[in-house]
Amino acid sequence: MKKARVVVLAIAITAALGAAWIASAIVSRAPEVQQVEKTVGATDVLVANKDIGLGDSVRADDFKWQQWPIEGVTPGLITKESQPDAPADLSGAVARAPFISGEPIKEQKLIKISEGGVMAAILPRGMRAISTPIREETAAGGFILPNDRVDVILSYNMKIGSKEQPVSEAVLRNVRVLAIGQALENTDGEKVVTGKTATLELTPRQAEVLSLAQSMGELSLSLRSLSDALPGDEPTAKIGEANQGSVKVLKYGVPSRTFGIN
What we know:
Layout (H helix, E strand, L loop, with lengths): L2 H26 L13 E7 L14 E7 L16 H5 L3 E2 L14 E2 L6 H5 L5 E6 L15 E12 L2 E18 L16 E6 L1 H13 L1 E6 L22 E6 L2 E6 L3
């Protein structure tokens, strides 16, 4: 082989090796990552430091300040800039609704003791709270819990001709249970709440009907299914009303009346 060809071949091999090395270096080089820091405006918002139950009396250490994006601060939230002493100012208030840990605090969901009792605080406008005695056997075996909805059934003796016959009437329908005894809510996964009284949320007219029913006979609470226990204005049965708009059913010879629209 001629000397010139050897030189050309050597140069070509060297160039190829050099190109391969350069290509390998480019492929194996880690890509450069550019870190862009974006500063987001934030402010301190008052949040629950732990879970707070309905009717709980709160203390200053039940709250904490937590950074919150300014864009997410909605009306009603308490900011450190506007109310720096809010934890101390709200200490002793009662929760009108439950809070979960980390949930922003709103003053509308808290009430000072001086402004009214706990029950008055959780009652909607225009509604009344009235209690009625219950026993386990007249309250679905103790399985009725606060916030359940029930029918109130009155059992009493009605004079029919010269005889008295036991009669049952649904005097109230689809009413909310506010409390059983002193329990305002179902806590710690309890499935049974026992007590000697049930406090019901009623309209003023319903409260009058319940008060009259208590003096006439024994009351029982009938638990409604969740599927038909939605809030709504349902008719209230009028005690002892004539049969207009009602259905009379004989069970084993005992008359029972369930009232419809009055």
